């Protein structure tokens, strides 16, 4: 069971992540780095949707895990895209190197916080 200290700590880390991404856009005058926030916010959605759609029947445990694997693939794609997009923008001289580093660091903090929230506040299944 997660307590109030966990919520406050994770909120603080999430705020630092958003601050890094916003500062990478504002300090270097290129708002293309804000696309990282969109990729990290969308990243957990395929896992959640495919996890819900994988086993609609509680009595059958032998259903295939193809849809779960597809959700994990899409989540991995979005996480890698959140890292690769600032690197690609830096390589094509659309953003500065410092903005790319700040965007990647902030994006990883955002995604790590989202994953931590889901781990700490996961409902336990009783069977």
TrEMBL record:
PANTHER family: LEPTIN RECEPTOR-RELATED (PTHR12050), RH04491P (PTHR12050:SF0)
Bilayer topology: Multi-pass membrane protein
Keywords attached to this entry: Membrane, Transmembrane, Transmembrane helix
The keyword rRNA processing appears for this protein: no
Top-level taxon in the UniProt lineage: Eukaryota
Pfam families: Vps55
UniProt similarity note: Belongs to the OB-RGRP/VPS55 family.
The keyword Membrane belongs to this UniProt entry's keyword annotation: yes
The name this protein goes by in its record: Vacuolar protein sorting 55
Native source organism of the sequence: Amniculicola lignicola CBS 123094
Entry's transmembrane regions: 7-25, 70-93, 99-121
GO biological process: one example: late endosome to vacuole transport via multivesicular body sorting pathway
